Amino acid sequence: MEIPTFIIWLVALGIGFLAYRVSRRSILDEIAGPASKSVLLGSMPDLMLSEAGLTEFSWQERYGDVVKLKGPLNTDRLLISDPKALHWILQTSGYRWGKSSDRKEISRLVGGKGLGWADGDSHNRQRKIMLPGFSAPEAKNLLPVFFSCASQMARRWSDILSGADDQTHIFNIPEWISRATLDAIGRAAFDYDFGATEDHETELGKAYQGMFLKVFGKPSKAVLITLELFRFIPPSVLEFLNEHNPNPRIAHVRHVAEIANGVAKRLVKNKSDALLEGKGRSDIMSLLVKANAGDDVNAQLTEEEMLSMLRQHLVSTWFSIFVISLIHWLSFSATLTWLLYELVRNPKLQSELRAEIRAAEKVAVSRGDSELSIRDLEGMSLLSATVKETLRFHPVVLHIYRTTREDDILPLSTPITTMAGDVLTELPVPKGTRAILSISAYNRNKTIFGEDAHTFNPHRWLEPNHIKKSGGSLGPFANLATFSAGIRACIGWRFAVIELQAFIVELLSNFEFSKTPQIDRIRREVAIAVVPTVEGEAEKGNQLPLRVTFARKGEE
Ligand SMILES: *[C@@H]1O[C@H](CO)[C@@H](O)[C@H](O)[C@H]1NC(C)=O
Ligand SMILES: *[C@@H]1O[C@H](CO)[C@@H](O)[C@H](O)[C@H]1NC(C)=O
Questions:
Q1: At what angle do helices 347-367 and 315-345 cross, to 10 degrees?
Q2: pTM for this one?
Q3: Given ligand 2 and candidates 414, 449, 451, which is best to mutate, with the most ligand atoms within 8 Å of its CB?
């Protein structure tokens, strides 16, 4: 770290805390889990530095769905993938399980004081303002936008393929996908064209590209300990320190935030000008302006009302949506990248999907439509199964961090046996208990998703009885933990599902994807989102090179 005094101060605090900890025992001491490898870091390096999910899967296999592990400075963590406990923490408890101050600071650094940072009433208020923009009909209305962004990329690829002697080209998938999906987000949320697909060097795109990897990839020991110490520092002091912290990772986040701020300001100006001219009223932001006009006001706002609403009341909301969109964009483009990765490893699945797309296209053409409709997509069962399986198998966010604000009793799907031999059907946890909710381990639950849960198999969603309900269903989609659940569930999940379908239809309809020699060296790197890197070439950033050729247009 760059500021030695900063660190010395933090370490001193840490030692004081350690001394305090040693004198205290709790029920958490009785829960089984991996032995700590070091007092400084505990088992966190195993969790954060291994390939995505692998450590958790082995712990889940060995210790079950509630695992006690040591975090930095000998602090306790519960790693939880038990369905009932997750349901309780995320859906039943409301704001009682919240973000600890260190996690809040990470949210603030990445996304400002928006929805990800806010808690309690202020979170509730922001969420209520935004929900109308993210309903099912709005998501469905955006299908043509998603198709047009996907086909813009397809046209560029076609040009490149046509120009090549053998009509084939190797594309670095994450790079292209993230540009096309940035454009999709811009148009869906703000009716704004970033022009990323056409132009390599969008300032914002460049800044965000690879941000996860640069900032959160392979955290060093110093970073892990510093994060742990964040929570002993009063939030305002911490904010001040981080605004001046010369550490390159933090500096990079600040740099990205500055660029985002600049773009956001330009967009607000653009939006208010457009609304004044009576244009561009179908995007999420315009919908929100209308939806939040209040009941007593006529649905037809005057221009002035609209403008003042936009400039005053909604500017913070607006920025929050902007940030959510960017986070959504990064997670979405990672998910689509992993989907394509699976399709080249399963050529049979790829051609089955293409056959389903061809059949649907035929029906659409006979209707006189040039594009598939939402109804068409809903009728494509293999496509829908593949999207679900990708979200299950490749959740881009592996962990949700929560801390309980009160003493609580966690209900459990499966009783746990303590090290003293007691069987607990529920687990009493003291106030301040820190939990790491494991999305990846829950999504691999064999009782729910089948004995082959560790295999990528979309057909599980099509076979009756392959998938069991876990009692209450978790999360907004397909009983998966991928979009989180409850009041903090991902607000844009419907957009993600429809956008994935649109991109896959467009890409598979036009192209065939196949392996390159690097495919066996692809590593699932944890950097808040799980991104692909090539083993031994981490310095090159996100990489998934795939060979692309034209798909035959006739029958498969
Ligand atoms: C807003 O941005 C769009 C591009 O998405 C552009 O065509 C339009 O002219 C801009 N409007 C204003 C008022 O700047
Ligand atoms: C999976 O889910 C079932 C049903 O909710 C639960 O009883 C079980 O403990 C979970 N864990 C595993 C590893 O199957």
A1: 120
A2: 0.88
A3: 414
